[in-house]
Amino acid sequence: MTQEQIDRINALARKSRTPEGLTEAEKEEQAALRAQYVAAVRESLTANLENTYIQEPDGTKHKLGKKE
Fold this sequence. Notes:
- The chain is mainly alpha-helical.
- The chain has one domain.
- The protein is built from two helices and two strands; from the N terminus they run H-H-E-E.
- The protein has a two-stranded antiparallel ribbon.
- It is rod-shaped.
């Protein structure tokens, strides 16, 4: 997700709070951009968790497993 896309999300959010609101096309654009943003955040979080290790008191390390 680029900074330009994030700026556009913010601009649409500001415009939606004005009395004129958003057009239907802008609402669709906002929904698509928000979906892209959420997907990017989830991808980043998943990558971060996949590289997380737990260190036991005895010094051994193991990967963080999936929650059951």
